[in-house]
């Protein structure tokens, strides 16, 4: 089982899966022109690629982002960003 977000007892896998499930897809993967957000159990997140990024490069980048975020170190938020893609999650403000 993946490490969990301490305070919210929410596994990072659930956050990442939620992002993937709520993100519009193109050719079976993320639409590089969309900037969607999803909310799962009090945690909000976003996954996107720079407009114009081809699907394969978007997929590779977001897979790297997921791997990075899977290494959750008992924090309530996390992010990964480079010149191709961004993925983040954090506590939903109430």
UniProtKB/TrEMBL annotation:
It comes from Linum tenue. Gene3D superfamilies: Gnk2 domain, C-X8-C-X2-C motif. Keywords: Repeat, Signal. This is Gnk2-homologous domain-containing protein. The keyword Nucleotidyltransferase does not apply. Residues 1-94 form the Gnk2-homologous domain. The keyword DNA repair does not apply.
